[in-house]
């Protein structure tokens, strides 16, 4: 009987300790919000940096846009690409280009 009581008490303490660790504090919430904000800022900075470099180094195709209306560029190796929201160059085929609407 003593073993049963001790085992039950121990299991209760372990479950209470586990519940206490799962509780999210305001500090955790603030830290997560800061991480999300920093990631958004980093992605936007990368996107603007790549787009700025593309406008200087590569030729922008004026009368065509990408699959979702993005500005498209032609690099020195005659490859066509657009820049996504994370600053990555996404290379596409010329057949994927759409005419630009006025």
Biggest beta sheet attributes? 5 strands, antiparallel
| Distance N to C terminus | 84 Å
Q: What is the radius of gyration?
A: 27 Å
The percentage of residues in β strands lies in 15-25%
DSSP, total strands: 5
What ranges have pLDDT less than 50 throughout 5 or more consecutive residues?
none
The level of helicity is 40-55%
Number of helices: 2
Shape annotation: elongated
Total domain count: 1
Residue-averaged pLDDT: 82
| Chain oligomer state | single chain
What is the string of SSEs from the N terminus onward?
A: HHEEEEE
Major β-sheet strand ordering: 4-3-2-1-5
At a glance:
The chain is of the alpha+beta class. It has two helices and five strands. The chain has one domain.
Summary keywords:
21% strand; 52% helix; alpha+beta; PBCV-specific basic adaptor domain-containing protein; single chain; 5-stranded antiparallel sheet; 102 residues; elongated; signal
What's the arrangement of secondary structure elements?
Blueprint: H1 2-22, H2 26-57, E1 59-65, E2 71-74, E3 80-83, E4 89-92, E5 98-99
Antiparallel strand pairs: 1-2, 1-5, 2-3, 3-4
Structure, explained:
This is PBCV-specific basic adaptor domain-containing protein. Helix content is 52%, strand content 21%. It is of the alpha+beta class. The longest helix is centred in the middle third of the chain and has 32 residues, at 26-57. It has one domain (30-102). The protein has helices at residues 2-22, 26-57; strands at residues 59-65, 71-74, 80-83, 89-92, 98-99. It has a 5-stranded antiparallel beta sheet, covered by helices on one side. It starts with a helix and ends with a strand. It has 2 helices and 5 strands. A hairpin with a 5-residue loop joins strand 3 (80-83) and strand 4 (89-92).
């Amino acid at each position: 009987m003593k073993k049963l009581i001790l085992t039950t008490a121990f299991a209760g303490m372990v479950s209470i300790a586990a519940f206490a660790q799962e509780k999210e504090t305001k500090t955790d919430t603030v830290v997560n919000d800061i991480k999300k904000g920093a990631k958004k800022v980093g992605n936007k900075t990368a996107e603007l940096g790549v787009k700025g470099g593309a406008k200087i180094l590569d030729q922008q195709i004026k009368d065509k846009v990408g699959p979702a209306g993005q500005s498209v560029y032609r690099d020195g190796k005659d490859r066509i690409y657009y820049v996504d929201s994370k600053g990555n160059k996404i290379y596409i085929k010329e057949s994927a280009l759409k005419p630009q609407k006025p």
